[in-house]
Amino acid sequence: MFNKILDEIKAEKLAAIRFQKTGHNKYRDRITVYMDGKILFERFCYGEAAGLVLSMWGNAAQPIAWQYDKCSHSQKNEAPKALDDCEQLSLMFDGKNDKWECTEKLKSDSKNGYSRIRVLLWK
Questions:
Q1: Does the chain have fewer CB atoms within 10 Å around its N or its C terminus?
Q2: Are 24 and 122 a contacting pair, CB within 8 Å?
Q3: Closest CA to 30 of 86, 13, 40
């Protein structure tokens, strides 16, 4: 299912495409799919103490293979497990009606090891 996203990344010579869960939620969840098939799940809280609550890496296998052992957050099971649908850069996970909309197309993401040079050299 992630093939459509990976094809889009290759076609546009991007480092990644970032998606965010739509609607009113307790947290701001986002997923970034990278050019090499790695996925980053990030959760941010709202309010005065807004900030990153957790981040967890995985890969685009079905079900998604999250690296739970590197996550210190106690509610690890809240990360999406399986991509159900990918339609015009809108995602649906785990049979839920929550949509994940494309928020950014990243040419690079140096913070996570995807510099513009790495993206240009990647085949």
A1: C
A2: no
A3: 40
> What is the rounded distance in angstroms from the CA atom of residue 109 to the CA atom of residue 113?
6
Instruction: Compute how many other C-beta atoms are within 10 angstroms of the C-beta atom of residue 54.
Output: 19
Question: Can you list the alpha helix ranges (DSSP code H) found in the chain?
Answer: 3-11, 116-121
Residue with tokens 């509610």: 75
CA nearest neighbour of 122 among 10, 6, 16: 10
**Residues 6 or more apart whose Cβ sits within 8 Å of residue 34:** 9, 15, 16, 40, 109, 112, 114
Q: Is the pLDDT of residue 106 over 90?
A: yes
* Residues linked to residue 109 through DSSP beta bridges, in sequence order: 114
Global pTM value: 0.85
pLDDT of residue 103 exceeding 80, the answer is: yes
Mean pLDDT of 59-83: 72
Check residue 78 and report its DSSP letter. G
DSSP 69: G
